[in-house]
Every structure is written in C-alpha cells, then in structure tokens.
Amino acid sequence: MADLVAVWEVALSDGVHKIEFEHGTTSGKRVVYVDGKEAIRKEWMFKLVGKETFTVGAAKTKATINIDAVSGFAYEYTLDIDGKSLKKYMENRSKTTNTWVLSLDGMECRVVLEKDTMDVWCNGKKMETAGEFVEDGTETHFSVGDHNCCIKAVSSGKRKEGIIHTLIVDDREIPEAVE
C-alpha cells in the first residue's frame, strides 16, 4: 500500500465502511479497497485523472472516486456517494436516519432507523420488526439477542422538528449517536 493516497469512512445503514484508494502516479495503477477487500484494480492507466465507480455495503450503494489534477503532478481525490459529495450525502443522511450505539452483553451494537422506510438495522443486519399504533404515536418493536427493543415515534408538536424517534432497550432510553 505504498501508493495509498486517500482513506474515507462512510456510515451506511449496515455499518461504517472504510474505503481506501491507491494511485500510482508513475505506474498509473489504481486500486480501491472497501473494508480491506480489493474492489477494483487497474494497472498501467495512462490517463492519470478520471473516476472509479464501485459499490459499498449490503444495499450496494454507488460510490465514485474522482481523480482531478490540481497542479503539475499534484492530484485531488474526492468521494461521491449516490451521486452526492460525501459531505452532502452525510448531511442528507442525518435527516433521513437515526443512529444509536450501545453495549449489549459486552458487544457494541449500532442500531439505525431509516425514517423513510422505517427499516431497522442492527450491526449490518436488517431486523424483523413489528409496528403498532399507540396513543401518542407509533412503536416499532424488535429484539437483539434476549433484549426487547422499541423505537418510539412521537410528534414534537413543532413543525420544524417533526417526529422524535427514541430507542428504548430493556425499558431504558438510549441516547442518539452523532455520526
């Protein structure tokens, strides 16, 4: 990995993925690794600028590394996820998902709620859920091991805030994680 020029971490519903990019500016080599596994390898590329497109995660999310010349033999590497810059994608994602990180039975669990579909993910696996309407909103029930989990959705009463989602595990509220 002598030609490693960029490393990104991308938080998706099924987990945080590490993307590494090698760019050999003398050999023209381009190698993309996703979570340590080689996704793309190209040797002897005579054009040193361009794009490399691949997929990330269980949902096969489209990712593109853009290689641009800055000046002389200096290059800039940017990552796009689903056609948006990584920064824009993560900003948008914070509006469409809630994430909680907690420890259960000595193991770290990352629970993600996709607000548009109400899908719940735990450590990369889509969970079986049961939804029900309750007096003040909805509850989405699921289990992690022997633990009863519930995501409560309650109106904030304020238009700008919208719906507040709260994760409750074994009758205790879990604070939301910031990614």
UniProtKB/TrEMBL annotation:
One of its GO terms (cellular component) is cytoplasm. GO terms for biological process: apoptotic process; negative regulation of extrinsic apoptotic signaling pathway via death domain receptors. Gene3D superfamilies: 2.40.128.180. Pfam families: FAIM1 (PF06905). It is found in: Cytoplasm. InterPro entries: FAIM1, FAIM1_dom_sf. Keywords: Apoptosis, Cytoplasm. Signal peptide: none annotated. Belongs to the FAIM1 family. Plays a role as an inducible effector molecule that mediates Fas resistance produced by surface Ig engagement in B cells. This is Fas apoptotic inhibitory molecule 1.
